[in-house]
Amino acid sequence: VDDEYVRVVAVPERGIEPKKYVLGLLQHRYLEDALPLLEALYAMLDDAEIAYNYGICLSELGRTEESVGPLERCIELDQEYTNAYVGLGVS
User: Fold this and answer.
1) pTM to 2 decimal places
2) Model confidence over 2-58: pLDDT tens digits?
3) Could you give the 3-state DSSP secondary structure of residue 33?
4) Rounded to whole angstroms, how far apart are CA atoms 89 and 91?
5) pLDDT computed for residue 17 by the predictor
6) How far is residue 90's CA from residue 65's CA, in Å, rounded to a whole number?
7) Residue 86 and residue 35: Cα distance in Å, rounded?
8) What's the N-to-C CA distance of the chain in angstroms?
9) Label partner for 71 (CA 20 to 30 A): which of 15, 36, 59, 85?
């Protein structure tokens, strides 16, 4: 929750775990579909993998300036997340 948004991820009781679902979308290159879920999960979780994928998704969609923050956050959460350094260099 912040001044502009209330973020939630609704998952059916027997549904797929949200992180697994969004990573599947990314794997199949459904970037625009994955973006809102990544935004929500990024705001709710301190998870290096989510931060990394959010940053890369933004970068792949041409939003390179916006991708820097999540990639830097990924590195803060896990300094050994090598791909985040590469992604940050590209952005």
Assistant:
1) 0.84
2) 677 666 666 566 778 889 999 999 999 999 999 999 999 999 999 999 999 999 999
3) helix
4) 5
5) 86
6) 11
7) 20
8) 28
9) 15
User: Can you tell me the distance from the alpha carbon of 18 to that of 12, in angstroms, rounded to the nearest whole number?
Assistant: 10
Query: Residue 67 in contact with residue 56, Cβ under 8 Å?
Result: yes
pLDDT value of residue 19 = 92
Cβ atoms of 47 and 55 within 8 Å: the answer is no
Q: In this model, does residue 80 exceed pLDDT 70?
A: yes
Q: With H, G, I as helix, E, B as strand and everything else as coil, classify residue 63.
A: coil
Give yes or no for a contact between 23 and 30, defined as CB atoms under 8 angstroms apart. no
Please say whether the beta carbons of 84 and 48 come within 8 A.
Answer: yes
- For residues 42, 44, 47, 48, the Cα torsion angle rounded to the nearest 10 degrees is 20
